[in-house]
Amino acid sequence: IRENLPPGTLVTTLRAVDADTGTFGELRYVVLEQAVGDPTAGDGRDAFAVNVSSGELRSRLTFDYERAKAFQLLVRATDAGNASATVTVRVLVTGEDEYDPIFLSPTFNFEVPEGARKGQSIGRVLATDEDEGADGVVLYTLAKPSPYFAINQTTGFIYLRVDSQPQAGAGRAKREPREMSLEVQARSPLPASRVASAQVTIDVTHTSFGLAPD
């Protein structure tokens, strides 16, 4: 069952089979009071209700994946002759993407050092996500590809795709400050994930990035 669904949501229909016909083949379903010994699962007796005649199992609560991820309960089917069978029901709560990723800063500023080589990291962006499970995993991408920079999608490190190549014939005193901007996006690996963006400004004064060759 997905989290945040309203109470009364149908989870499944439990169906026992009785070979008797007539009255003795009619079954009544009930959730048993005895506890189920799985320490990783919550007690489902108060969380779910079973229809006594149809076996429909419905939720009695709205679930929060961040609080509880599984429930377990014991259901018994009894016929008119008091013969019975029991079954253990395990219900897993699945998460929804409830929270946006949040970057630690809306903007980041980095510099390409003089003489930097291809593959060298120049800085790291970081975002967090309060969701748990796959929805809480953060992956990073550039909104638009760059010929000069790339980002590690799992760590958020921005690195060079090419050598920095100093400006030809430019003395240190004559270099005018130059900057490039990137937009980095953070999202989970699941479809329809929530997305957050941050702006990255990179000082490329000590490179020939973006300059026409002499």
Which helices and strands, and how do they pair?
Elements: E1 10-13, E2 27-31, E3 42-43, E4 48-50, E5 56-59, E6 70-79, E7 84-92, E8 102-103, E9 107-111, E10 121-124, E11 127-128, E12 139-142, E13 149-151, E14 157-160, E15 179-187, E16 195-203
Parallel strand pairs: 3-6, 9-16
Antiparallel strand pairs: 1-5, 2-6, 4-5, 6-7, 8-11, 10-14, 12-15, 13-14, 15-16
Structural summary, described in words:
InterPro entries: Cadherin-domain_protein, Cadherin-like_dom, Cadherin-like_sf. With 214 residues, this protein is mainly β. It folds into 2 domains: 9-92, Immunoglobulin-like; 102-207, Cadherins (Immunoglobulin-like), CATH 2.60.40. Helices cover 0% and strands 37% of the residues. It contains no helices and 16 strands. Strand 4 (48-50) and strand 5 form a beta hairpin. It is rod-shaped, with a radius of gyration of 30 Å. The termini are far apart.
What brief labels describe this structure?
four-stranded mixed β-sheet; transmembrane helix; Immunoglobulin-like; PCD16 protein; mainly beta; membrane; 214 residues; repeat
Overall mean pLDDT stands at 89
Unreliable residue runs: none
Query: Quick one: overall form?
Result: rod-shaped
The third-level CATH topology of the largest domain is: Immunoglobulin-like
**Cα distance spanning the termini:** 64 Å
Query: Which architecture of the largest domain per CATH?
Result: Sandwich
Total domain modules: 2
What does this entry show, briefly?
The protein is mainly beta. The chain has no helices and 16 strands. The strands form five sheets. Strands 2, 3, 6 and 7 form a four-stranded mixed beta sheet that branches. A four-stranded mixed beta sheet has the order 9-16-15-12, with no helix packed on it. It has a three-stranded antiparallel beta sheet with strand order 1-5-4, with no helix packed on it.
